[in-house]
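Regression test case RT-17, inverse folding.

Input:
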Protein backbone atom coordinates (compact mmCIF):
# COMPACT_ATOMS: atom_id res chain seq x y z
CA UNK A 1 0.00 0.00 0.00
CA UNK A 2 2.72 2.51 0.92
CA UNK A 3 4.60 1.77 -2.34
CA UNK A 4 1.45 2.42 -4.39
CA UNK A 5 0.89 5.74 -2.67
CA UNK A 6 4.52 6.73 -3.27
CA UNK A 7 4.36 5.86 -6.98
CA UNK A 8 1.05 7.70 -7.34
CA UNK A 9 2.63 10.79 -5.77
CA UNK A 10 5.59 10.56 -8.16
CA UNK A 11 3.26 10.35 -11.14
CA UNK A 12 1.09 13.20 -9.89
CA UNK A 13 4.14 15.38 -9.29
CA UNK A 14 5.47 14.60 -12.75
CA UNK A 15 2.22 15.78 -14.32
CA UNK A 16 2.19 19.00 -12.34
CA UNK A 17 -0.89 18.13 -10.30
CA UNK A 18 -1.44 20.27 -7.25
CA UNK A 19 -0.18 23.75 -6.47
CA UNK A 20 2.64 23.04 -4.05
CA UNK A 21 6.04 24.59 -4.78
CA UNK A 22 8.88 22.26 -5.81
CA UNK A 23 10.22 20.24 -2.89
CA UNK A 24 13.38 21.32 -1.14
CA UNK A 25 15.90 18.46 -0.78
CA UNK A 26 16.54 17.34 2.79
CA UNK A 27 19.92 15.71 3.40
CA UNK A 28 21.07 13.54 6.27
CA UNK A 29 22.84 10.25 7.02
CA UNK A 30 20.53 8.21 4.76
CA UNK A 31 20.29 10.89 2.04
CA UNK A 32 23.72 12.47 1.61
CA UNK A 33 24.04 15.72 -0.32
CA UNK A 34 26.76 14.27 -2.54
CA UNK A 35 27.61 10.72 -3.58
CA UNK A 36 30.59 9.07 -2.02
CA UNK A 37 33.63 9.66 -4.25
CA UNK A 38 34.66 6.00 -4.37
CA UNK A 39 31.30 4.34 -4.87
CA UNK A 40 28.76 4.18 -7.65
CA UNK A 41 26.28 6.98 -8.23
CA UNK A 42 22.70 5.85 -8.56
CA UNK A 43 20.21 7.24 -11.06
CA UNK A 44 16.46 6.75 -11.45
CA UNK A 45 14.00 8.06 -14.01
CA UNK A 46 10.46 7.63 -15.29
CA UNK A 47 8.65 7.72 -18.64
CA UNK A 48 5.15 6.78 -19.77
CA UNK A 49 4.75 3.58 -21.81
CA UNK A 50 2.15 3.64 -24.58
CA UNK A 51 -0.17 0.65 -23.99
CA UNK A 52 -0.43 -0.21 -27.68
CA UNK A 53 3.38 -0.47 -27.85
CA UNK A 54 3.90 -2.46 -24.65
CA UNK A 55 4.25 -5.87 -26.38
CA UNK A 56 6.95 -4.47 -28.70
CA UNK A 57 8.77 -2.76 -25.82
CA UNK A 58 8.73 -5.94 -23.72
CA UNK A 59 10.02 -8.04 -26.63
CA UNK A 60 12.89 -5.61 -27.27
CA UNK A 61 13.93 -5.62 -23.63
CA UNK A 62 13.64 -9.40 -23.28
CA UNK A 63 16.59 -9.69 -25.68
CA UNK A 64 18.47 -6.37 -25.88
CA UNK A 65 20.79 -6.16 -28.88
CA UNK A 66 24.44 -7.01 -28.08
CA UNK A 67 25.65 -3.66 -29.50
CA UNK A 68 23.35 -1.75 -27.16
CA UNK A 69 24.44 -3.82 -24.16
CA UNK A 70 28.09 -3.20 -25.04
CA UNK A 71 27.54 0.56 -25.28
CA UNK A 72 25.73 0.65 -21.93
CA UNK A 73 28.61 -1.20 -20.30
CA UNK A 74 31.22 1.01 -22.05
CA UNK A 75 29.35 4.05 -20.68
CA UNK A 76 29.95 2.75 -17.14
CA UNK A 77 26.36 1.80 -16.39
CA UNK A 78 25.84 -1.21 -14.16
CA UNK A 79 22.87 -2.89 -12.48
CA UNK A 80 20.42 -1.30 -14.95
CA UNK A 81 16.78 -2.16 -14.27
CA UNK A 82 13.44 -1.06 -15.71
CA UNK A 83 10.21 -1.56 -13.78
CA UNK A 84 6.60 -1.23 -14.98
CA UNK A 85 3.65 0.08 -13.00
CA UNK A 86 0.11 1.15 -13.87
CA UNK A 87 -1.17 4.25 -12.06
CA UNK A 88 -4.39 6.10 -12.76
CA UNK A 89 -4.95 4.22 -16.00
CA UNK A 90 -1.49 5.02 -17.40
CA UNK A 91 1.55 2.75 -17.64
CA UNK A 92 4.90 4.04 -16.40
CA UNK A 93 8.42 2.69 -16.67
CA UNK A 94 10.84 3.41 -13.83
CA UNK A 95 14.53 2.83 -14.47
CA UNK A 96 17.42 2.59 -12.03
CA UNK A 97 21.12 2.09 -12.59
CA UNK A 98 24.47 2.51 -10.94
CA UNK A 99 27.02 4.74 -12.68
CA UNK A 100 30.61 3.67 -11.96
CA UNK A 101 32.57 6.05 -14.22
CA UNK A 102 34.27 9.37 -13.57
CA UNK A 103 32.56 11.65 -16.14
CA UNK A 104 28.82 11.04 -16.40
CA UNK A 105 28.18 13.72 -19.04
CA UNK A 106 30.97 12.41 -21.26
CA UNK A 107 29.77 8.81 -20.95
CA UNK A 108 26.17 9.81 -21.75
CA UNK A 109 27.40 11.83 -24.77
CA UNK A 110 29.29 8.74 -25.99
CA UNK A 111 26.09 6.71 -25.70
CA UNK A 112 24.12 9.38 -27.59
CA UNK A 113 26.78 9.39 -30.33
CA UNK A 114 26.73 5.61 -30.77
CA UNK A 115 25.15 4.92 -34.20
CA UNK A 116 23.34 1.73 -33.15
CA UNK A 117 21.87 3.33 -30.04
CA UNK A 118 21.09 6.71 -31.61
CA UNK A 119 19.92 5.63 -35.09
CA UNK A 120 18.35 2.23 -34.44
CA UNK A 121 17.54 1.45 -30.77
CA UNK A 122 16.29 4.80 -29.47
CA UNK A 123 13.97 5.53 -32.43
CA UNK A 124 12.21 2.20 -31.77
CA UNK A 125 12.05 2.47 -27.98
CA UNK A 126 11.22 6.20 -27.94
CA UNK A 127 8.22 5.51 -30.20
CA UNK A 128 6.90 3.22 -27.44
CA UNK A 129 7.02 6.01 -24.86
CA UNK A 130 5.52 9.41 -24.04
CA UNK A 131 7.73 11.98 -22.35
CA UNK A 132 6.37 13.24 -19.06
CA UNK A 133 5.85 17.01 -18.78
CA UNK A 134 8.86 18.56 -17.06
CA UNK A 135 11.37 16.19 -18.66
CA UNK A 136 14.48 18.24 -19.51
CA UNK A 137 15.02 19.12 -23.17
CA UNK A 138 17.11 16.51 -24.94
CA UNK A 139 16.07 13.73 -22.56
CA UNK A 140 13.41 11.05 -22.96
CA UNK A 141 13.11 10.01 -19.31
CA UNK A 142 12.34 12.35 -16.39
CA UNK A 143 15.15 12.15 -13.79
CA UNK A 144 13.99 11.38 -10.25
CA UNK A 145 15.38 12.88 -7.07
CA UNK A 146 16.84 10.47 -4.54
CA UNK A 147 15.36 10.90 -1.07
CA UNK A 148 17.02 7.96 0.68
CA UNK A 149 19.89 5.52 0.18
CA UNK A 150 20.92 2.77 2.55
CA UNK A 151 24.00 1.03 1.12
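Golden output:
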Amino acid sequence: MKRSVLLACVAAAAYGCGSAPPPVPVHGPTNPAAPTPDGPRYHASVVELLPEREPQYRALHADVWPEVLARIRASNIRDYRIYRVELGGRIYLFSTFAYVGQDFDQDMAAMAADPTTRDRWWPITDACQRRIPGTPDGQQWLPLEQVMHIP
